[in-house]
């Protein structure tokens, strides 16, 4: 990208760049082209064709002049505005109105003086107010409800409210013209307006749900085939009823009520798809029943409205319940996966902990052996050499005696260190002998804690890992007593049974109810890890000022993990 513009390029820009007004016109033209693209125009043509085709069908249900009891185009209109993008709305409105003026103007194919009568100004106002009411109602519905529609109860209730409001607004704009021009019509305006609302609302209930559901979501192949089969069975039954009319059998009264259970089954079994299809079939059922019925159109209308609202809400509730179940299953599956990963992490940590314990004991064993074999032998050798020097140099006996005493102290300290690293006899002596022979109990005595050790039974053969870890647990328990329990007596009992070893360490101290002995302390964690490593159960029984009991239960069939 250059920083300076060539003069020729500046001249070209001045000549060929459009001035601001022309640029605005060009932008407006391009917007119109996008707004009335071939795709949107095709949508408008299909919509207006279907709309007026259903208008011709609806004329068969006319009860009040220029109104119908089942105005099916209302359902087509609402469905079209719900499924089409906002940019397609102008094409829908213009296509509908152009077709309206073309078909219903005087002398046209469908000359309807009731539609075209009145002042030209009012006709234009009606042509603007009607689509404005439709677009406002649909825009509000789409603003607060997301696709797919009818998959939850709130969406269905919003749809019903929008349908009633739209029917009322359209009826008011259509009948208001006649009321303003005809004073006699004002007296019957409200009853006719109610019939108009009911007729539009019936058309919306019968057609809009099935169109929306078919366009926005699909069933699985198996469920769709089953639903289609049941719908064909329903339609076949209606044809059979029509044939029975011709044969002299009248099932009009029973027909509408027999259809209640299948309609509820459709909604319950297939959710919003079944509910939407049931509304269409309910409308067909009411139409068949009205062919040979003396009931007023109002009764059929209320039947359609009541049944349609019921199955739509039931279908939406079933759909919403299924969605919540699926979400719960997905959440449970996700939680199970996280639990599995967490368990794997715990297993890895436990394996690492076990490896650390085993490595620690192996390193202690190696260090104790090295100290004993290397430094121990060196100290003994020094003591022997000093003895020989003392026999040859009597004059230096005092100095040599001091050195010999220091070596004895060093050797004793080394033996204590070796005992802490790897207690003597741990590989071949029973636990009680190891405890007595090592410095563990002696250190408790030096701390002013009287220790008693009891054992019962015959000691079994234990692996080196089990021996050293049981010893370390006892050692850690005694260390905690010496540091925190403020105890004066400790009793250790070891019971050897055929299937398990039971060990209890009880003191008369203040118990574990203190901050430094909380369960998350390092000493208790080490005891638990060692117990888990050898498959033992470690239990703490403590109360304030009641002492503490540490219980170790080791099954003899369990081996270190």
UniProtKB/TrEMBL annotation:
Membrane among keywords: yes
Membrane topology: Multi-pass membrane protein
GO molecular function: phosphorelay sensor kinase activity; protein dimerization activity
Keywords carried by this UniProt record: Cell membrane, Coiled coil, Kinase, Membrane, Transferase, Transmembrane, Transmembrane helix, Two-component regulatory system
Pfam families (UniProt xref): HATPase_c, HisKA_3, MASE1
SUPFAM superfamilies documented for this protein: ATPase domain of HSP90 chaperone/DNA topoisomerase II/histidine kinase
Region forming the signal peptide: none
Organism (species): Alteromonas alba
Protein name: 2-keto-4-pentenoate hydratase
PANTHER family hit by this protein: NITRATE/NITRITE SENSOR PROTEIN NARX-RELATED (PTHR24421), SIGNAL TRANSDUCTION HISTIDINE-PROTEIN KINASE_PHOSPHATASE UHPB (PTHR24421:SF58)
Principal subcellular localisation of the protein: membrane
Residue ranges of coiled coil: 318-362
Lineage, opening ranks: Bacteria, Pseudomonadati, Pseudomonadota, Gammaproteobacteria, Alteromonadales
TM annotation in the entry: 37-58, 70-89, 120-141, 153-176, 188-214, 226-245, 275-292, 298-318
GO cellular component terms given for this protein: plasma membrane
């Amino acid at each position: 990208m250059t920083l300076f513009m060539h003069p020729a390029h500046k001249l070209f820009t001045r000549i060929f760049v459009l001035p601001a007004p022309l640029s605005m016109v060009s932008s407006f033209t391009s917007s119109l082209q996008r707004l009335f693209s071939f795709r949107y125009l095709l949508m408008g043509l299909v919509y207006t064709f279907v709309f007026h085709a259903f208008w011709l069908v609806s004329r068969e249900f006319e009860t009040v002049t220029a109104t119908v009891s089942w105005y099916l185009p209302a359902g087509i209109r609402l469905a079209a505005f719900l499924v089409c993008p906002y940019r397609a709305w102008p094409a829908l409105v213009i296509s509908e109105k152009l077709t309206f003026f073309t078909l219903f103007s005087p002398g046209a194919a469908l000359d309807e003086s009731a539609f075209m009568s009145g002042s030209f100004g009012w006709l234009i106002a009606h042509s603007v107010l009607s689509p404005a009411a439709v677009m406002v109602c649909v825009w509000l519905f789409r603003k607060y409800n997301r696709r797919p529609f009818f998959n939850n109860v709130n969406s269905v209730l919003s749809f019903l409210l929008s349908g009633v409001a739209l029917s009322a607004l359209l009826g008011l704009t259509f009948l208001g013209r006649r009321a303003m021009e005809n004073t006699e019509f004002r007296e019957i305006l409200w009853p006719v307006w109610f019939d108009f609302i009911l007729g539009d609302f019936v058309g919306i209930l019968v057609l809009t749900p099935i169109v929306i559901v078919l366009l926005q979501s699909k069933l699985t192949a198996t469920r769709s085939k089953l639903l289609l089969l049941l719908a064909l069975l329903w339609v076949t039954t209606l044809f059979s009823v029509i044939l029975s009319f011709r044969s002299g059998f009248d099932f009009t009264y029973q027909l509408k009520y027999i259809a209640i259970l299948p309609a509820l089954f459709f909604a319950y079994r297939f959710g919003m798809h079944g509910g939407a299809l049931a509304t269409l079939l309910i409308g067909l059922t009411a139409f068949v029943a009205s062919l040979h019925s003396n009931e007023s159109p109002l009764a059929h209308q209320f039947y359609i409205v009541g049944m349609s609202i019921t199955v739509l809400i039931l279908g939406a509730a079933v759909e919403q319940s299924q969605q919540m179940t699926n979400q719960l299953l997905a959440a449970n599956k996700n939680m199970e996966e996280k639990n599995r990963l967490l368990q794997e992490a715990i297993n890895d940590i436990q394996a690492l902990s076990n490896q650390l314990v085993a490595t620690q004991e192996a390193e202690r064993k190696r260090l104790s052996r090295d100290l004993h074999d290397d430094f121990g032998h060196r100290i003994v050798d020094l003591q022997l050499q000093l003895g020989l020097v003392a026999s040859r140099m009597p004059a230096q006996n005092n100095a040599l005696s001091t050195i010999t005493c220091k070596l004895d102290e060093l050797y004793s300290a080394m033996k204590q260190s070796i005992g802490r690293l790897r207690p003597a006899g741990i590989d071949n002596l029973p636990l009680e002998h190891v405890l007595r022979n090592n410095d563990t109990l002696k250190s408790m005595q030096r701390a002013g804690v009287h220790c008693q050790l009891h054992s019962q039974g015959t000691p079994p053969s234990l692996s080196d890992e089990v021996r050293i870890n049981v010893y370390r647990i006892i050692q850690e328990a005694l260390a905690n007593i010496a540091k925190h329990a403020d105890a004066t007596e400790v009793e250790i009992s070891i019971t050897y049974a055929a299937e398990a070893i039971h060990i209890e360490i009880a003191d008369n101290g203040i118990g574990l109810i203190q901050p430094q002995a909380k369960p998350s302390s390092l000493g208790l964690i080490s005891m638990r890890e060692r117990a888990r490593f050898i498959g033992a159960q470690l239990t703490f029984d403590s109360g304030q000022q009641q002492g503490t009991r540490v219980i170790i239960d080791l099954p003899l069939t369990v081996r270190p993990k």
